[in-house]
Amino acid sequence: MKKYGYKAILCLVSILLIFFSVNNKVLADVNAMLVYVGDSIVWNGSNTGNVAGISVSGSGNDLTINVQGGQNYAGLTINGGDGSDSVHINILSGSAVFQGNNNNIPPGVPTNGSSGRSGIYVNSNASLIISGGELKAIATTGNDGSGHAGITSNGSVTINNANITATGSNSTNNSPGGNGIETLGDFVVAQNGQPTINATGGSSQQNDGGNGIFSLGKINVKLGTVTARGNTGVNGGAGVVAADYPSGSTSSPQDTIIVENSAHLNGIGGTGVTGIGGAGVLTSKSIDITSGGNIAGTGGNGATEGGAGLAAARSLGSGYPANTNANDSIHSDNGGTIHGTGGDATTSGTGGVGIETNLIANTGGAEILGEGGNGAGAGSGGDGIQTTSGNSNVITGANLSGTGGDGGTTGAGGNGIQTDQSLSVSNGARVTGTGGQGNGPGEGGIGILIGKDITATGGAAVIGSGGNNQGSGVSGTGIKVGGIIQSNNSQIVGTGGLGSTTNAGDGLSIDNTQGNSTALSSQNGSVIKGIGGKGGAPSGSGGNGITIGTGLITNNDSTVAGTGGDGGTSSSNTTPNGSGGSGIDVGPIDNTGNGTITGNGGDAGNPDNTNSSDGGDGIHSSGDITNSDGSTITGNGGSGKDAGDGIHSDGDIENGGNSTNDSSTITGQGGESPNAGGNGIDSDGDITLGTGNASGIGGNDGGTGIHVDGNGTITGGNNTASGSPAIDSGQGIHVIDGTTSTKGDTKTPSLVIEGGSYGEVPSGSNVFNLPPKNAEGEGLKQITVILEGNSTPGKKVSVTFTKGNGSDYSYNTSHLVIGKDGKLHVWLPKGAVIKNISSNGIKYPGKYVVTSKNNQVAYFKIKGEESKVTPSKPSKERSKGHQVFSIISGKDGRLPSTGDKNNIANPVIGSLLVILGSYYIWRKK
Question: Alpha carbon 393 to chain centroid distance?
């Protein structure tokens, strides 16, 4: 926590000394009050008429001072009265000026007293009320060099429909500059009217600059515009200071500064010549914005540290108790704006924080904006918004935005938004954080840094962008969370900063280390995105799109997408390039309920060169990956010397379930490489492919389509794999059901097939390193089944398999569909029978008996079709009375289609499928 050394307590002590020296007792009867203009008494129980333009009247508890405008008066002093009394100053017309001086002061005033030296001084705790016209209150520097306030009151001050200018005097000794307005009670603006108030503190050569407005009570701006400026000093004076001391509770928040009804309060801190800049607005308790009120604080520049823009629930400095109420905050409702801008450090040190408080509670559509000041030297930039307490920050239907300041020449950038606690965003609210730029070894600032959890609901948005680095430091993360992220129908997007010469920032990072507990929960149409920054030249790594320590991703009916940044590019053939970042690098993944998870790995710099680094994985999970209930997981590996895998799991991968309605899809594309292409889908454990679709494509050169260190189990679905090899298993492959098309070899120590369609066999290739068997250990033969008039991939096929003795052969067909090549590839022992086939509303008669040959073809014709395919040339007798055509089928086993050269057969038999080779077709003339 910063220390604000405004030494306002010195002002309090001096006021109290004067009060007790002039008044031996407090009088409750205004007729006993004494009123001076300079050293001329104008009221001593009755109007004296000693000063032209001043008329005083009063009775009971009310004293009225009527002032004729258009004149300059000496300082006004009111002695006597208590809290039940009221002093009314009415400016009758024009502009009246009260200016203190050292030559005309009331009798008995100490050498350093404010009586007669302040523009207006109320030496009691009576209430001061100023109304009408225009009033200027100007203090003068004391004979001893001390500064004094433009308006000083030991009680409260209320300003109605009057325009006020209050100017504190400068200090030339070791005292602070005078405050513009100083009150030991509350400061209230505009019970009526639209006043304009300008208050400016005095400067100090040896101490702190004066504050624009200092209130030991509350500040309540109901209407109009108030602008308060602190002045220059060793430490700059604050624009606005409110203490609400010694009142207040330690349990419930105390609203010390209140702005309402579209009013404006502006605080501008003074410059700290050798120390800290003054805060724009400072209070030890809460700031409350209501009914469209507006507050803006601009911290002053400081040699060692910039001043805070808005600082709530913060210490006021020496002599004041520290804030102990964790509930004190900045909060708002029903519109309005809250804007804090931190001051810059000018010599060395950190920039000022834009908005600094325990917590922020914004429930009514207000705009909250914090901008950190820039650091100097090795100093970091100030945070845009910084909160610290034991409670959550709640943003409902409003906008919160923080921008970190840039670091000094070797300093880190400030964070856009930082809290030690949690952030809750709902009802269309939007939270945006942008980290400041880091320089030299200084890191780029984090866009949004949350110590605990983020909860986003009801169409909310949380967007964070990490700061870039212009030097050798790491760039900032877009959004970084220490706990968990929960999103319901909301959007969370993090973008990492760009690297200059080193590593780029991650897009979204969750430091959850609670084992396999949920770290990221996304549901009901939420969108979660992480975009890694690009690595700096020559060898900086790209940032990961989404990084999670060990926690679980649970995604339901939502979208989670991560894009890894590309690695830095070297212009030298001998200097390594930067690695690509992973799209998603997380713990376990559970994707369900039509959820979508997509990861794109970044490319390494110069990925085609031999001195390139590795490409990033599209999706890398340190645990298990489960994809079900119509969900989709897609991973694309980045290119590099060793290319990234499309999807890589350190545990098991399971796609789909046993339900025929589960259309889950998992797709992995390995990255390209001149050395080793990435695998499409890679598991260090087991892979289970159920219903739905799975596709693994190995990258060139040498990437495997689907690689599994353990067992691969296929229980259903429409699965494809291509690569070198297409499928590679360390322990074995067990095919139970479904349809699997492979382009490339299958490498496995054990291949057991008990159902489904497995394998697309290229002509002349040996696709298995050993023959497959069934559960009984019988050797199996592949039979390619071609169904006439039915080659649409994905169409369900019903079929019966029997043994040679007529008994049922156990072979799973519940998820059997036509493969991508338009055929079925079933595996049966010699003597087994295929019969009773139906698909797409077509029943196929006949049967096929498996022989001892490998790669058999069984062709089933539609019953009653006039066209006939025969494997031999027709006899001369047979050809009489018929037209005879000679055609050659395509490599896919189909006849030529419409538009093919010499397509004489198409009008004859349409889309008839035939076995590879040459055939003769006859038809009656």
Answer: 14
- CA 240 to CA 264: how far, in whole Å? 13
CA-wise closest residue to 83 among 35, 26, 10, 24:
26
Distance CA 590, CA 558 (A): 12
Residue pLDDT, tens place only, 28-75 = 578 889 999 999 999 999 999 999 999 999 989 999 999 999 999 999
How many C-alpha atoms does 451 have within 13 Å on its Cβ side?
A: 14
Write the pLDDT tens digit of every residue in 550-577: 888 999 999 999 999 999 888 776 677 8
Residues 6+ apart with CB under 8 A from 536: 469, 475, 498, 499, 500, 501, 502, 503, 504, 568, 578
Supply the mean pLDDT for the chain: 86
In the sheet that 797-802 helps form, which strands lie side by side, from edge to edge? 797-802, 833-839, 842-849
Alpha carbon distance 622, 547 (integer Å): 11
Question: 864 Cβ partners below 8 Å, 6+ apart?
Answer: none
- Give the C-alpha separation, 632 to 529, whole Å: 16
**Residues 263-302: pLDDT tens digits?**
999 999 999 999 999 999 999 889 999 989 999 999 999 9
- State how far the alpha carbon of 51 is from the alpha carbons of 71, 74, 76, 91, 457, in Å: 11, 10, 11, 15, 67
**E strand or H helix at 13:** helix 8-22
Higher pLDDT, 258 or 251: 258
* 243, 320 Cβ separation under 8 angstroms: yes
Give the pLDDT score at 18: 38
Confidence at residue 674, expressed as pLDDT on a 0 to 100 scale: 86
CA pair distance 39, 44, nearest whole angstrom:
13
- 644 DSSP assignment: P
**How far apart are the C-alpha atoms of 857 and 140, rounded to whole Å?**
109
What SS3 state is found at 87?
A: strand
Name the band, by pLDDT with cuts 50, 70 and 90, for residue 767: low
